[in-house]
Design goal:
Distance between the termini: 44 Å
Number of strands: 7
Structural class: alpha/beta
Shape: globular
Radius of gyration: 17 Å
């Protein structure tokens, strides 16, 4: 893993130090947005966020990704910490296949079954790069903002210690109820949802 570039990034939440990382210079870089001086003492507030162009850029309401990203940046800017932005769109299947999965979801499949129908695993992501980036930044202990048990598992018995899980729940919308319920029921995410087993949305 190498650092490709670094700069200051002013945002509406505050100014971050933005660092691009990759294993090879021609790869799509992962990004670290750093606020304050993490790694000096107390466990560092960290969000490991996988790219979601539809939610992060275009404001899609099919998921809660864009709202989670905004909330994480707000908290990290206020408290100090690190946001790691991993380029693994669609739980690792890429943008085009994610769009194909959306079409299957429009026909009633949930997010997991749509990925399986396309011939992929339910979640193709790896979070090892996030751990490597944190080590490079000198972070040894984290307070991880996540509801995802797979992200917690990525820190088990590793060089970066998980001191605490910090919930990051976004108020659900009509458009993402089925998506969030699938996360909770099938993928084991730690979510407190105000409904029971919603059905696939009518299209």
């Amino acid at each position: 893993m190498i650092r490709l570039a670094e700069t200051q990034l002013p945002t509406r939440w505050g100014t971050f130090r933005m660092i691009a990382y990759a294993n090879e210079p021609e790869e799509m870089p992962h990004l670290a947005l750093v606020s304050g001086h993490p790694g000096a003492g107390a466990p560092v507030l960290v969000r490991v966020h996988s790219e979601c162009m539809t939610g992060d850029v275009f404001g899609s309401l099919r998921c809660d990704c864009g709202e989670q990203l905004a909330e994480a940046m707000r908290r990290i800017a206020a408290e100090g910490g690190v946001l790691i932005y991993l380029r693994q769109e669609g739980r690792g299947i890429g943008l085009v296949n994610k769009i194909r999965a959306y079409t299957l979801q429009d026909r009633g499949l949930d997010t997991v079954d749509a990925n399986l129908e396309l011939g992929f695993e339910a979640d193709m992501r790896s979070f090892d790069m996030a751990v490597d980036i944190l080590r490079d930044l000198g972070v040894h202990e984290v307070r991880l903002m996540t509801n995802n048990p797979d992200k917690i598992a990525a820190f088990e018995d590793g060089p970066v210690v998980l001191a605490e899980r910090v919930p990051i729940e976004i108020s659900p919308r009509d458009e993402n109820q089925f998506y969030l319920a699938t996360k909770q029921r099938v993928m084991g995410h730690y979510l407190q949802l105000p409904w029971q087993e919603p059905h696939a949305p009518e299209r």
